[in-house]
């Protein structure tokens, strides 16, 4: 409230104070507050409507983070004043999913925050938006947290821990609202501090859960209609907010393979949407080919009725895509043969710093394309080929091919770095 008062004067803040929605309960004793299950927050009726009510807030939840905040939405500060027409011009956006670690609570939830709440129809007022400076402060508050292993957590000069996938966190929820099929932890479109949610790191190195392996049969009927069950949650609804691996599909619209794109995957008869993350690596990553598995966050965004469909996935990095089933190490293009085409892929993506996938030549799964991957390719050179003649040894062929490709790529990179006149 004081933040708004400094920016817009006393009268607008007085108007905010008399709005019923600001009558939030005082903070509880968070340590004594019992945990709320993710399944409780995400409960739905037979029509997909929410069973959880905001009157039950505040609540406390625990879960493991399953996506990085800078790989799903663009959180760059971008204040845009309301013009009377630019509804939902939200500027910076921040979104993180966290999943239950309780086997009896197979569910997950979404935390969301946006910069320009002043552009939503219920406000139409810049007083509800964050300035760029305020937005950067808010995102820093959520992205950099006290390390529970820090011997002196009250000392702000000590290093903080960055919120990343695999962190086990406790979330203090003061506000939220139902959104397109799920109940989000958010600020209820209000930038007043009373609506903030807080994140406490319990274990920065807890680790990601194993993704739940699913196929189209688990989420759709034979005609492509989403399966849905409310109590207990079943069908597609059972996977919402959780880390899953969708197996045995192919990408059918390669033209949409780009940062923040949305590709369609199919099992041959049914289609499903996979939203790509806000990661520059998608603009240069090789397109996944053949039959693949996709690992990511299962989500729902359904506007309007019925609330029993609109499911999709988030795949936030290229390495979320992998060949399906057993593969020959070194077969980057998944054609069943390790040959010059695979060596070419390796050369093109040589020394990719992070986020590389199998289809870029990252055969050892470390996110990079490097000497280790070249060695894997060389050791499997010409595997899968049925030939009448003797197959040349790797030292005489593939290693030379890789060397030429890498040197060519390195030379091109040096040329790009030369100063222009």
The helix/strand order is: HHHEEEHEEEEEEEHEEEEEEEEHHH
**Total number of helical segments?**
8
CATH architecture of the largest domain: Beta Barrel
What's the N-to-C terminus distance? 54 Å
Quaternary organisation? single chain
And the CATH topology of the largest domain? OB fold (Dihydrolipoamide Acetyltransferase, E2P)
Helix content class: 10-25%
Q: What is the CATH C-level name of the largest domain?
A: Mainly Beta
How large, in whole angstroms, is the Cα Rg? 25 Å
List low-confidence stretches.
1-23, 406-421
User: Overall mean pLDDT score?
Assistant: 87
Classification by helices and strands: alpha+beta
Strand order of the largest sheet: 3-2-1-6-9
Structure description:
The protein has helices spanning 2-8, 10-17, 38-41, 132-143, 216-219, 340-348, 371-379, 398-417; strands at 59-65, 93-99, 108-114, 144-145, 161-162, 168-173, 176-179, 182-185, 198-203, 212-214, 228-230, 233-235, 243-251, 262-266, 271-276, 292-300, 311-315, 321-323. The chain is of the alpha+beta class and 421 residues long. The chain has 3 domains: 26-203, Beta Barrel (OB fold (Dihydrolipoamide Acetyltransferase, E2P)), CATH 2.40.50; 212-323, Nucleic acid-binding proteins (OB fold (Dihydrolipoamide Acetyltransferase, E2P), Beta Barrel); 340-417, no CATH class. The strands form 5 sheets. Strands 3-2-1-6-9 form a 5-stranded antiparallel sheet.
């Amino acid at each position: 409230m004081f933040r708004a008062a400094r920016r817009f004067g006393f009268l607008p803040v007085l108007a905010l104070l008399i709005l019923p929605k600001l009558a939030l309960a005082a903070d509880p004793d968070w340590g004594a507050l019992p945990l709320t299950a993710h399944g409780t927050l995400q409960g739905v009726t037979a029509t997909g409507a929410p069973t959880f009510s905001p009157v039950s807030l505040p609540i406390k939840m625990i879960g493991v983070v399953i996506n990085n905040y800078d790989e799903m939405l663009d959180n760059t500060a971008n204040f845009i004043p309301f013009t009377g027409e630019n509804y939902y011009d939200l500027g910076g956006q921040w979104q993180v999913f966290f999943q239950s670690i309780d086997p009896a609570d197979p569910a997950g939830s979404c935390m969301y925050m946006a910069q320009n709440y002043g552009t939503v129809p219920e406000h139409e007022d810049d007083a509800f938006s964050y300035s760029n400076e305020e937005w950067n402060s808010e995102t820093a508050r959520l992205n950099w947290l006290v390390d529970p292993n820090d011997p002196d957590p009250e000392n702000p000069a000590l290093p903080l821990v960055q919120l990343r996938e695999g962190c086990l966190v406790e979330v203090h929820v003061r506000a939220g609202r139902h959104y397109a099929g799920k109940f989000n932890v958010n600020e209820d479109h209000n930038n007043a501090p009373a609506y903030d949610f807080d994140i406490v790191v319990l274990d920065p190195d807890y680790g990601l859960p194993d993704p739940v392996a699913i196929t189209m049969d688990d989420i759709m009927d034979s005609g492509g209609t989403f399966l849905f069950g409310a109590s207990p949650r079943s069908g597609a609804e059972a996977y919402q907010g959780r880390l899953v691996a969708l197996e045995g599909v192919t990408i059918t619209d390669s033209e949409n393979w780009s940062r923040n794109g949305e590709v369609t995957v199919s099992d041959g008869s049914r289609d499903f949407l996979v939203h790509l993350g806000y990661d520059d690596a998608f603009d240069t990553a090789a397109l996944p080919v053949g039959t693949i598995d996709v690992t990511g966050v299962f989500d729902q965004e359904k506007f309007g009725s019925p609330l029993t469909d609109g499911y999709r996935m988030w795949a936030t990095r290229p390495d979320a895509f992998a060949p399906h089933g057993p593969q020959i190490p070194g077969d980057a293009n998944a054609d069943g043969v390790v040959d010059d085409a695979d060596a070419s892929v390796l050369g093109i993506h040589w020394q990719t710093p992070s986020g590389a996938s199998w289809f870029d030549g990252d055969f050892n799964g470390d996110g990079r394309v490097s000497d280790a991957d070249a060695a894997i390719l060389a050791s499997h050179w010409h595997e899968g080929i049925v030939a009448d003649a003797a197959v040349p040894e790797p030292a005489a062929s593939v290693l030379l091919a890789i060397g030429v490709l890498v040197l060519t790529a390195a030379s091109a990179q040096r040329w790009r770095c030369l100063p222009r006149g």
